[in-house]
Design a protein that fits this description.
The structure holds two protein chains of two kinds. Chain A is built from two helices and five strands. Chain A is of the alpha+beta class. In chain A, strands 4-3-2-1-5 form a five-stranded antiparallel β-sheet. In chain A, β3 and β4 form a beta hairpin. Helices cover 60% and strands 8% of the residues of chain B. By secondary structure, chain B is of the alpha/beta class. In chain B, the strands form three sheets. A seven-stranded mixed β-sheet of chain B has the order 2-3-4-1-5-6-8, sandwiched between helices. Chain B has 24 helices and twelve strands. The chains are: A alpha+beta, B alpha/beta. At the A-B interface, α1, β2 and β4 of A face α3, α7, α11 and β12 of B.
Chain lengths: 81, 613
């Protein structure tokens, strides 16, 4: 599943960040911000227009990601959910 | 310790409270400049430690990592490594981390440590961490990192004492520099997890207060309603506090000019003093109250953490027209005046998005257009009811505002299509914890903005104002001339020359002439028209309205209104574009596209209105 497909309020665990193209600076930035394997995330809120951008909680930080950015993040359901 | 200056660089993630710490340490003793050729701010301050040693503090831009190619991050890295030309390498790096957000911030600490320079870690916002029940084993963290770790509370005086004591003491030994590659970077997260597991206990990941506030502030309906209310308040304040002060300053300088003039013999010198220098100063300083009022709100919204929320709510809308959620506040400010709007684009981190915002900002209907709109609408548009409820004059005014917004959307959309850089630019915006803005930080921010405006722009704008005065005054009318003096001046000749260009828009030479002073400040077009139509100041706007209605047709008036909606006006705006983008090319692009847009729109308006009439 992609992070952009997560329903509102749902939690998940990051599997990996995929490059949308070669040398994807945005994917690298996502990894630098902590979107790495095993990290728990939660979709906190969605923007009022077209449900974009998405507000993602990772650790103690909340990041606003556009759908195209969130789509780079592969997630899976948390264990013992 | 011996005397001598110690150079300290402050680094940290955005929202780590680094600037508040900087303000607390240095007080008002700061120097703000730009790094050469880029618009990244360079902030430096100094203070004297208890030992008597002078500590020179450099506040580097907030960065998440050293990887991305943004100009701030490159500069931060180059300065820390001592590779930035003209910048001596720091003797000590103080890395600031938010104690409530260590998972994110510690990673950057590790990255800084890999540079192989002496580092002290300041665990900031310890008060908030304690309030949320976050327990940090500081000695253990220090041991594992191999760095001195100091707890700070940037907003309190005693909250930085231990940091001062630390940096004033022995410089810690640097860890050896380590190569920076992808494998090592991935490893940093694992190290952070290990550190956190060993040293930090957190009852819950987020602040309950933030969660509660965000439920309202980011709600699809309530959030937009709150945003509308906040914006309404800001606007009201600009008009009810800023505008009267602006008018008072202009009147004050007029009065001063008149007082000085009374001591001088009549002649060109007197005219230079009253109309050129005092009139010009009144115009320039008149911008100041509106700038300060707007920036007061922008700073409060920024410090409180609300600004990124507003950007979150509006991002989708702004992306559709080639901008970003962060463009919204600067564009809204531009309805008061494009100058603070353009200065406010500094909160847009992406350079391409920032430039796009700067280019469309002058299309927002600023308050200086209102006197011109009021005059022309009053003179040419009848007070008729439309659809039973609306006043036709009001409808026209609304249409002009709408034209500005639609024009900006169209320009943004076109820019998005034609620009060379079509790559995806990320939002990736952190929504920080809500914080109560500290008066000290707001005051220092306001002082900086005010000084930037006064120091960098007053000279340019004043020089241009005096030039304007010169061309509208010289040469003096020949003896026995009957027309108003400006008709015989350089501006008069230019007006007649310009008429050839503007004739297809339905402008006569008087209108063309009034466009010259309007370039200095739009509202002066009214005074210029009054002068050429030789209506005395006593007759007031009513007299001028009659003179205009008698002298040119409705089609020309409509065309002129449209011109004012789009024209590349006011040189102060162009000067601030030059200052904020450090590029004449952007000034030329801005002037060029607005001229073309205004010309085309006025041409169409005039030709259609002329045929219908």
């Amino acid at each position: 599943m992609r992070l952009s497909e997560l329903p509102k309020g749902a939690s998940a665990v990051v599997e990996r960040v995929e490059d949308a193209h070669a040398d994807d600076a945005i994917a690298q930035r996502l990894r630098d911000l902590g979107f790495v394997a095993g990290e728990p995330v939660r979709l906190v809120a969605r923007g009022p227009l077209g449900a974009d951008p998405l507000l993602i909680q990772i650790g103690s930080t909340r990041f606003a990601l556009r759908r195209a950015e969130a789509a780079r993040v592969r997630v899976r359901a948390p264990e013992a959910a | 310790m011996s005397a001598g200056t110690l150079r300290i660089a402050l680094v940290g993630n955005p929202n780590c409270g680094k600037t508040a710490l900087f303000n607390q340490l240095t007080g008002g003793r700061q120097k703000v400049a730009n790094y050469a050729g880029v618009t990244v701010e360079r902030k430096e301050g100094r203070f004297t430690a208890p030992s008597g040693r002078v500590l020179q503090l450099l506040d580097l831009p907030g960065t998440y990592s050293f990887d991305a190619a943004s100009p701030d991050e490159r500069i931060t890295r180059d300065v820390l490594e001592g590779n930035y030309p003209g910048e001596a390498p720091p003797d000590l790096i103080v890395c600031v981390a938010d104690a409530t957000n260590l998972r994110l911030h510690l990673r950057f600490v590790l990255e800084v440590q890999r540079l192989g320079r002496p580092v002290v870690l300041a665990l900031n916002m310890m008060d908030a961490a304690r309030r949320r029940g976050i327990a940090i084993d500081v000695p253990e963290l220090s041991r594992r990192l191999g760095l001195p770790v100091v707890e700070t509370v940037a907003v309190r005086r005693e909250g930085v004492r231990s940091l001062v004591a630390q940096v004033d003491g022995e410089i810690p030994v640097a860890a050896p520099a380590q190569p920076d590659d992808a494998a090592a970077r991935a490893d940093l997260h694992a190290q952070v997890r290990e550190l956190l597991a060993a040293t930090v206990r957190m009852p819950r990941a987020t602040d309950a207060r933030d969660d509660a506030l965000d439920r309202w502030a980011l709600h699809p309906v309530c959030g937009l309603a709150i945003l509308a209310a906040v914006m309404f308040l800001v606007f009201q304040a600009v008009y009810s506090v800023g505008k009267p002060m602006t008018d008072a300053i202009a009147d004050g300088f007029d009065w001063l000019g008149a007082q000085v003039a009374a001591w001088m013999p009549a002649g060109p010198l007197q005219s230079l003093v009253t109309d050129g220098i005092f009139g010009g100063l009144g115009t320039v300083l008149g911008f100041l109250p509106e700038i300060l009022v707007l920036f007061f709100f922008i700073l409060v919204l920024e410090e409180s953490g609300y600004l990124p929320r507003a950007a979150f709510l509006l991002d989708r809308l702004m992306v559709a027209v080639g901008l970003t959620g962060r463009s919204f506040i600067p564009l809204l400010s531009s309805f008061a005046c494009a100058i603070p709007g353009i200065m406010g684009t500094r909160s847009i981190t992406d350079p391409r998005d920032r430039l796009a915002t700067i280019l469309v900002a002058p299309l927002m209907t600023c308050s200086a257009r209102l006197p011109v709109y009021a005059l022309l609408i009053g003179a040419f548009i009848p007070t008729r009811r439309v659809l039973g409820v609306f006043n036709l004059q009001g409808v026209v005014l609304f249409a002009l505002y709408a034209a500005g917004i639609l024009g900006a959307m169209a320009v943004g959309f076109v820019m998005k299509r034609i620009r060379r850089d079509r790559s995806e630019h990320a939002l990736l915006m952190e929504l920080p914890s809500y914080r109560l803005p500290k008066p000290r930080d707001v005051a220092i921010g306001l002082w900086e903005r005010g000084m930037v405006f006064l120091k960098r722009l007053t000279g340019v704008i004043l020089a241009l104002t005096v030039l304007m005065w010169f061309i509208s005054t010289f040469p003096s009318p020949p003896a026995g001339a009957s027309g108003p003096a400006i008709e015989y001046s350089i501006a008069g000749y230019m007006g007649r020359a310009l008429q050839h260009i503007f004739a297809p828009l339905g402008f006569n030479w008087q209108i063309s002439l009034s466009l010259i002073p309007a370039f200095a400040a739009r509202e002066t077009a009214v005074a210029a028209l009054a002068t050429v139509y030789a209506v005395g100041g006593d007759a007031g706007a009513g007299g001028l309205s009659h003179a205009l209605a008698a002298n040119f047709p409705l089609a020309s008036a409509l065309s002129l209104l449209v011109w004012f909606a789009f024209a590349p006006q006011c040189m102060s705006t162009l000067a601030v574009i030059r200052r904020e983008t450090a590029s004449w090319r952007n000034v030329a692009i801005s002037f060029g596209y607005m001229f073309a847009l205004a010309y085309a729109a006025s041409f169409v308006t005039y030709q259609i209105a002329w045929r219908l009439a």
